[in-house]
Amino acid sequence: MSQDERVEDLQVTDEMPWAEVNPDAARRLLVAAVEAFAERGYHATTTRDIASRAGMSPAALYIHYKTKEELLLRISRIGHEKALRILRHAVEAEGTAADRLTEAVRCFVRWHAGHHTTARVVQYELESLGEDHRPVIMDLRRQSDAAVREIIDDGVKAGEFDVPDEPGTTVAILSLCIDVARWFNPQGRRTPDEVGAFYADLVLRMVGARAPR
Amino acid sequence: MSQDERVEDLQVTDEMPWAEVNPDAARRLLVAAVEAFAERGYHATTTRDIASRAGMSPAALYIHYKTKEELLLRISRIGHEKALRILRHAVEAEGTAADRLTEAVRCFVRWHAGHHTTARVVQYELESLGEDHRPVIMDLRRQSDAAVREIIDDGVKAGEFDVPDEPGTTVAILSLCIDVARWFNPQGRRTPDEVGAFYADLVLRMVGARAPR
Predict the structure, then answer these.
(1) Inter-chain CB proximity B172 and A124 less than 8 Å
(2) CATH code for the domain in which residue A122 is found
(3) For B171, which of A40, A120, A183 is closest by C-beta distance?
(4) Is some CB atom of chain A closer than 8 A to the CB atom of B185?
(5) What is the ipTM metric for this complex?
(6) Among A72, A78, A139, B51, which is least packed by CB within 10 angstroms?
(7) Over the stretch B6-54, which tens digit does the pLDDT of each residue have?
């Protein structure tokens, strides 16, 4: 797959969330679950609430999802896989470490701003996942962490970045970007693109970026 | 009140959360509400759950709090007032803008790490507050924002900081610090103090701090 194809692919996914969920009824239920979990929290939401929001019967829901937790896992997994795909895409891009870190932050923030409702559910309901399923998500999170860490490490090795504490800085950068989902307001002054570009500059400052030697 | 007295005062409050809530039964109910809201979310928690966690009857709860929302408002208000007090304390401290920003970030992060359960409830359940009560909290948030903004503005005017976008940088700094409550793990490698000190350095980078001219 060429880089152009990958970029296009990412954009399509950006505009058509849950496109990978089929059939249509399963997708509608997932969208309804995201809304219900975001509004009232996972524990206050029943499968009956979700089915009713999707205009379906509880019996129809059970055809697609056996439990409420299966819905949360599916949402969480798709959300985390998208985040990882965005970050891996930046790791594999051409350019200096600063270029790649800019790309990572710009796209990761844009996703968290543009999909803030999903992102909140994904981030705040992690502990509602059962012990059986949490490891799947924790593994995706470790991979996202490793992707950012890899760019930082490249930058330090190339003399582009000055980072005294690489693991701590990696956590802080991801944390700064994720929290956009908490405060972002679509009626606010900035678009997801603008926040992404601004945050990329802030993150370059955090890693002490300078021209490559 | 001397600066030493103020520092001591802040530390006492840090170690005795909810000390301002009296009588003892009202405080026990508040602590129980924080735990319940953090575990299951505001909407999934009943006043009966809260009373039972506190080892009290629902009737005993109603002596102190008329509604579940009154408990959330009390928690949110105390949490936001503490955050504001920490930030105002730093604004009014002696020293350069960099010294005061360091103090603000160090203490604000320490509070969010040390009281991460309360901080999560305070931050994630804002929208569960009714229309009547949300403005009280929004006003406290604007004041916290203004406190950080004041230090940044002082630093820019003194030629200590290089900040192209003061409102955006203020939001980002507060956001970075608040999100510590999401990821902080008391069993992790870093203490609240260590995260606070590390974050203060990162924030000085974000504002492009240099020696005062």
Answers:
(1) no
(2) 1.10.357.10
(3) A183
(4) no
(5) 0.90
(6) A139
(7) 444 444 445 567 888 888 899 999 999 999 999 999 999 999 999 999 9
